[in-house]
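User: I'm preparing a small set of examples for a lab meeting where we compare how different chains pack in three dimensions. I only have the primary sequence for this one, and I'd like the structure in token form so I can line it up with the others. Please keep the answer compact; I'll paste it straight into my notes.
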Amino acid sequence: MTYTRKNVRDLSKSERRRFVNAVLDLKRSGEYDEFVRVHIDYYVSDGEDQLRLAHMAPSFLPWHRMFLLEFERALRRIDSSVTVPYWDWTRDRTPAAGLWKSDFMGGTGRRRDLRVMDGPFARSEGRWRVRYAMTDGDFLTRDLGRPRDPLPLPTKAQVDRVMQETVYDVEPWNSMSRRGFRNRLEGWGPGEGDDRFLIHNRVHRWVGGLMLGGASVNDPIFWLHHSYVDMLWSRWQQRNPRAGYRPATAPLPGTSQFRRVAARDEPMGPWDVTPEQMLEHRRIYRYR
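Assistant: Understood. Below is the structure token output for the 288-residue chain.
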């Protein structure tokens, strides 16, 4: 039976509570931390001479679709009414937005160490200990909006420009691709510093703290962010039904991306699924 992913704005109090409780149960069982480990393991940049699946590659979108689906399945084994909502960051653009209230995601971190002090995922609540990260602390950190060096979230106009792309991806199939929906949505642009980080990447930087880097799954907002990214891809697919996944065939030996990206029918680890198999989701879930 098809289920629905909703805008976080449209969740009832009961739906918010059920989602939070399912996430906490998953954390208590240790399964949540396995999702963290997977993302760290597959966080490979295009500066590394190895296969890239999760980032800086054409499979960024199908890999995260599968990752999100696996997480959602785990939640629904706990509570079958739960789905992963999406955070439309073109509308809810400030730390005062409802999703950051203490009954849901909790707020930003305190100034001296960015430690989140309120909400169900604060370390002080005793239910959210960070086990796998690149920092010394075992607590969730955030720096919403980066007030000491402000950084705006992507705008609707910026997203609309990305949605005008008509091809999925182009060579060299990495963060340097000049065109293509995947690279523009992932958010790699020209320039230096913050100017290079756009759309998806910009949101990670706006949240800050543990949302920076491979251990970003430690922050449950990761899932709401990627649910919206997946929704944007779903809308783009509907607008461009003939624009399939690229590359259709694997890069040839002797080329820069040989054995570094997944072609349409090549498996994506850690699952035995291909990008092609992740192109259709409407039999499983829909967006509202």
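A couple of notes for your slides: The chain has one domain: 3-92+153-202+219-287. Helices lie at 13-29, 31-41, 60-78, 156-163, 181-186, 199-207, 221-239.

User: Perfect, thanks.
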